[in-house]
Design a protein that fits this description.
Blueprint lengths: L22 E8 L8 E4 L2 E4 L1 H16 L3 E8 L3 E8 L3 E2 L8 E2 L6 H16 L1
Antiparallel strand pairs: 1-5, 2-3, 4-5, 6-7
Helix pairs in contact: 1-2
Length: 125
């Protein structure tokens, strides 16, 4: 008889935290079954394949699509991606800087990463 032990998944989000809050967020996204889908490491250097280049293109698309998003460092590995995404406050300041006017509804980190994953997957497949 095979005895399978299921690990409890580590909680990777803070309870009661609003992930639309302006700030810097570090994200890691793994491929399904951790398959090396984005390229290979050759001579200690990551060599991106077509899918790896799409991942970079769509990561940059996030800041172009959502004006309150800025991006910092990122790295594509064979079976995962690390990136730092920055959510700004979503306000535009006019001549009277004491009265900020909200411009858009800010998407949560989950929604932003969902958009990144969906658009990347559609282009790849």
């Amino acid at each position: 008889m095979l005895n399978l032990v299921c690990r409890e998944r580590k909680l990777n989000r803070l309870r009661n935290w609003d992930y639309t809050t302006p700030g810097w967020y570090f994200v890691t996204i793994c491929t399904k079954n951790r398959e090396p889908f984005f390229g290979d490491i050759l001579n200690n250097t990551m060599k991106l394949n077509k899918q790896g280049h799409i991942i970079i293109k769509q990561w940059i698309w996030l800041k172009d699509r959502y004006k309150y998003v800025k991006l910092d460092d990122y790295v594509v590995m064979p079976n995962h991606f690390h990136g730092i995404i920055i959510i700004n406050d979503g306000f535009v300041y006019g001549r009277d800087r004491s009265r900020p006017v909200p411009t858009v509804k800010i998407k949560s980190i989950s929604e932003l990463i969902g958009a990144f994953k969906t658009t990347s997957s559609k282009i790849i497949h």
